[in-house]
Amino acid sequence: MSSHSDLAQPIDTFARRHMGESPEDTSAMLADLNYPSLAALIDAVVPSNIRRGPLALPAAAGESAALDELRSIAADNRIFRSFIGMGYSDTHVPAVIQRTILENPAWYTAYTPYQSEISQGRLEALLNFQTVVCDLTGLEISNASMLDEGTAAAEAMMMCHRLKEGAAADSPTFFVSDACHPQTLEIVRTRARPIGIEVVTGDHRSFKPGPGCFGVLVQYPNTWGSVHDYAGFFEQAHAAGAFCIVAADLLSLAILRPPGEFGADVAVGTAQRFGVPLGFGGPHAGFLSTRDAFKRQMPGRLVGVSKDAQGDPAMRLALGTREQHIRRDKATSNICTAQVLLGVMASMYAVYHGPEGLRRIARRTKLLTELLASGLRAAGATLEAEPFFDTLTVGNVAPQRVHAAAEAKGFNLRAISATQVGISLDETTTLEDVKVLLGIFGGAPLPSPDSVGADFEGVHARTSPFLTASVFERYHTEHEMLRYIKRLEAKDLTLCQSMISLGSCTMKLNAASELFPVSWPQFSRIHPFAPEEQTRGYRRLFRELEAWLTEITGFAAVSLQPNAGSQGEYAGLLVVRAYHQSRGEGHRNVCLIPTSAHGTNPASAAMCGFRVVPVLCDAMGNIDVADLSAKAEANARDLAALMVTYPSTHGVFESAIKDICAIVHAHGGQVYMDGANMNAQVGLTSPGEIGADVCHLNLHKTFCIPHGAADRASGRSGSRRTWPPFSPDTPSSRPSARTPGAPASGR
Asked: Is 87 among the domain residues?
């Protein structure tokens, strides 16, 4: 019988409703292990010299109270109609997809499909995703989703660098059109720097690829809305020995000539506008497609069609899947994850609409943009270039007045320069929206829809078929779609059926109340570059999360920037690199990595330009301290970092961890901790207490972010007191320094 004090507490606490074990289960476990209590077990397992005191965090709230507080935070976000563009578009999420995939634990708790026999449903959905990307881009092979468009572009650059041989590989330059989205350019620059690639930016129309150029990247349509014919430029690039990459808008390719038909070697982008909410920037499913000849250099996962033991068709992950564990620092990338849940949503969006539905959505979007353009010309405005798909760069206007008028109507437009404003339309745009936009720019009447076109002409028009597989013709009504989704769902093992004891991902059935807010419009319909005064709720969440994670990790600062564990590793190592460079020790490039480490560790180190030196483990799998000490001494001049997972990859709190960190520090190195097993540290110890200098946290492993077959692996970086200046950041949405159409900016 509980006490009255206990009885008075909220009933709907997470501890009461969400924790899987019962007191009887705990007692049975302790009896088997011969410990009288959990406290005694913890004292025996966690070394006393790394224990820390209680966490200074707010008191736990019940589920109802937590949701009430979150509603008040969400109310601080203001939902405007965003016409900002820059790679992010509002979209209609079909209700059948939102209800039976995004909000369905049978899809968001599924584990990575390494065991194909219990993953055929997910694998079929991902095969559909690959088919959509291949068909629309006109290339032969695609991976099963990536993290986002910018990361996909950077991975494409590195892939082309690997493919290149000779002089261009020794002194490489990579051209990026200055009409690419600015966030993509920043990610490419960040990825290029550590491995010695020089990024050159400018106008593709005046850039001449030379013998040292191994690749070029252009946007299609570009960030200002213009659609260019890149065929001639790609001929020049190929003649110089360079590979050609196109960052493409997937929806536009339903009516726009696909990149594979005018010489592209790689196409990248995001599937966000295929029924995935804006969500203040993500997560969203990126994509990368390429020519079949390059498949062994392609990063990420690939779903292939094989045969089962009975000889029937079956799907499995193929080629480079988790190849970091074999090739380690020679791996093609450090990516062992993908945005599967969002990739599944995008693939189902294509299945639901089919080729004719996608073509209609694309034509309608272009039609409304043509109507807006016609009305703007009538009002005296100028347009950057033609043809266009959904985006206009409008000149001969007073931007300050225009933005003020737009704000009064609840609209966000893109701030470009002192003379120009950007407008991007999308699937959700209506005729009434176009009327309001014309009123904002001076009140020109809405032209007749019959007075403008809805298709591209000549060299820009798509003439090839797409999505001809039968799956894209069968499920265009809700009940057909529902049955298809449920058929795939029934082929998989998820946490709805049982626990999944695989890997260190600590799979768990996320509380439903934690996931309700994902679908709230105050969170799902916010553009990532919306003005700060519209995103106060999001910013409050960020401040609170940063403060709580700082307390939990024992660090001085936490960045919320990287959106995956692989990117968290990469960002953390870049922090180490920047720290050494700031001290005049940029020559430090040796990274010590235990042979037991997760394969992404050496892959990440190599991507940062580090030389990997393996450290042996003893017979019990612990780090061999003597070998570590010898290798730290031998590489003292060049030692940059040690990468360590704690508890170790075999689940043990190594008692020598403080000595290990001290050895590395004594030889001038820094300690990077892989936070994959952070769930075992929370409240008992912390990276800061142990002696680590930087770490990333996989929020889906420790803090109840949906896994969804290895997506939303939200990496977060923390750093010790001397390092916050080097933490990752993102380019702001301030007006561009370049006026579209201006001369190339050079290097």
From this structure: no
The CATH number linked to 623 is 3.40.640.10
Encode pLDDT of 338-379 as tens digits.
Answer: 788 999 999 999 999 999 999 999 999 999 999 999 999 999
Strands, E assignment, 425-495:
none
Task: Pull the structure tokens for residue 697.
Answer: 């946290």
pTM: 0.92
pLDDT band, residue 333 (cuts 50/70/90): low
Distance from C-alpha of 696 to C-alpha of 673, rounded to nearest angstrom: 7
Coil vs helix vs strand at 87:
coil
Helix 23-33 vs helix 38-45: angle between axes, to the nearest 10 degrees? Answer: 50
Whether residue 558 lies inside any domain: the answer is: yes
Pairing relation of β-strands 313-317 and 611-615?
unpaired
Write down the residue that tokens 């896994």 correspond to.
707
Whole-number Å distance between alpha carbons of 240 and 218: 17
Contact between residue 409 and residue 403 where contact means Cβ atoms under 8 Å apart: no
d(CA 74, CA 96) in angstroms, rounded, equals 25
Domain count, the chain: 2
Distances in Å between the Cα of 216 and the Cα atoms of 117, 239, 296, 439, 738 are 41, 13, 20, 40, 20
Distance in angstroms (rounded) separating the CA atoms of residues 305 and 301: 13
The rounded distance, in Å, linking the Cα atoms of 2 and 741 is 74
| H helix or E strand, kind and range, residue 393 | strand 391-395
- Edge-to-edge order in the sheet of strand 81-83: 81-83, 411-415, 421-424, 391-395, 382-383
**b vs e for 87-115, b when ≥16 Cβ sit within 10 Å of the residue's Cβ?**
bbbbbebbebbbebbbebbbbbbbbbbee
> What value does the mean pLDDT take over residues 650-657?
88
Would you give the distance in Å from CA 432 to the centre of its chain?
Answer: 34
Q: Which residue from 584, 568, 602 is spatially nearest to 687, judged by alpha carbons?
A: 568
| Among candidate residues 322, 330, 327, the one with its CA nearest the CA of residue 606 | 330
Question: Angle CA(278)–CA(218)–CA(353) in degrees, nearest 5?
Answer: 45
For residue 171, is it within any domain?
yes
Range of the domain at 562: 535-726
Distance CA(187)–CA(152), nearest Å, equals: 10
The set of residues, in sequence order, having a beta carbon less than 8 Å from that of 238 and lying 6+ positions away, is: 244, 263
What are the tokens at 236?
């020049």
pLDDT above 70: residue 425:
yes
Q: How far apart are the first and last CA of the chain?
A: 74
In the numeric block, which tokens belong to residue 685? Answer: 């110890």
pLDDT in tens, 480-525: 999 999 999 999 988 888 877 665 455 667 788 888 898 999 999 9
- The span from the CA of 127 to the CA of 142, in Å, is 9
Which stretches within 240-388 are classed as H helix? Answer: 324-327, 340-378
